[in-house]
Amino acid sequence: MDSSELYHIKQQFFLGAFKSLVNLTLPDPNSPPYIPTLLYQARAHIALNDTKAALQLLPSDSENIAVKAAASLARYISVTQDTDQEAIDASLEEIRDLAVEIEGDDVDASEEDISTVRVLLGTAFARAGEVEEALETLGIDTEDLEGVCVIVQIYLSINRPDLARKQFERSKRWAEDDLLLQLIESTIGLVTGKDGYSNTNSFYTEQLGNPSLTSPHILTARGVTRILRNEIPEAKSDLEESLEQQKTDAETAAALVVAAGLGGLKKSEAEELWTRFVSEHPDHPMVSDVLEKESLFDESASKFPVPPAAA
């Protein structure tokens, strides 16, 4: 059973309170909570896109396979930012080697560590677009709830909410009704719009009422939910508050652009916000999508000559 401190660390990680986690003081290296705490702190650094800090934190000489997997994930994400395909391929091979290692009969690791490794490696494969490898590594019949959470996110990313829902329903048969199970249900609800997003909105609101939690990610999630519920002023408020806590977060900025375009700001202010977003996040999928549609519109418009004005 987890200690109360480790339980709280898990809750913070699942709810995206990453900045709180990276500032934690690690316990004694010889104590049982050391490795789990170390891993969640390193993963929080990775989630904040600070792979350098994660690699500095993880001991390079550790024989713990979960620590190795966390380092491999950090290295993979780091090399993808440099777009060096040779380095990316080499990093993926390192991850595949670890995936093979945990399937061996002689692996020296606890079940908890192996479950963590599956989540870390599955995350790497999912980010690489290797969906089948990700699902095979995670195991679609897993009874590790964190693994189920990643599987659900993968299914939602490939537009298979039906399979995501099956994973959730399967998990309810053996998992306790804990925070992570509620988070999975809310994530599915956010994508599918079940019950007008009411359950999802209630979940995020409940978590934001926790005085011991500061999570801009939950604020962003509720902001997106409120956009979908057509609560634009409230969504704008959530997203602006989230950006105050994480000024460079592209997804929050993208959501704010959407809210602004739906009436959250005056037209001139919305256009200015869009221009700034394009400048700061030129590679964001929303920017690419809008620019592509602009190009298609211009191409189509060029095929229809404008007749002269009537005299």
UniProtKB/TrEMBL annotation:
Molecular function as annotated in GO: structural molecule activity
Pfam families membership: Coatomer_E (PF04733)
Chief localization: membrane
GO biological process terms, semicolon-separated: endoplasmic reticulum to Golgi vesicle-mediated transport; intra-Golgi vesicle-mediated transport; protein transport; retrograde vesicle-mediated transport, Golgi to endoplasmic reticulum
Keywords: Cytoplasm, Cytoplasmic vesicle, ER-Golgi transport, Golgi apparatus, Membrane, Protein transport, Transport
Annotated TM spans: none
InterPro entries referenced in this protein's UniProt entry, alphabetically: Coatomer_esu, TPR-like_helical_dom_sf
Compartmental location: Cytoplasmic vesicle, COPI-coated vesicle membrane; Golgi apparatus membrane
Membrane topology recorded in Swiss-Prot or TrEMBL: Peripheral membrane protein
Gene Ontology CC annotations of this record: COPI vesicle coat; Golgi membrane
Superkingdom of source: Eukaryota
Family: Belongs to the COPE family.
Function: The coatomer is a cytosolic protein complex that binds to dilysine motifs and reversibly associates with Golgi non-clathrin-coated vesicles, which further mediate biosynthetic protein transport from the ER, via the Golgi up to the trans Golgi network. The coatomer complex is required for budding from Golgi membranes, and is essential for the retrograde Golgi-to-ER transport of dilysine-tagged proteins.
Protein name in UniProt: Coatomer subunit epsilon
Organism from which the protein derives: Sphagnurus paluster
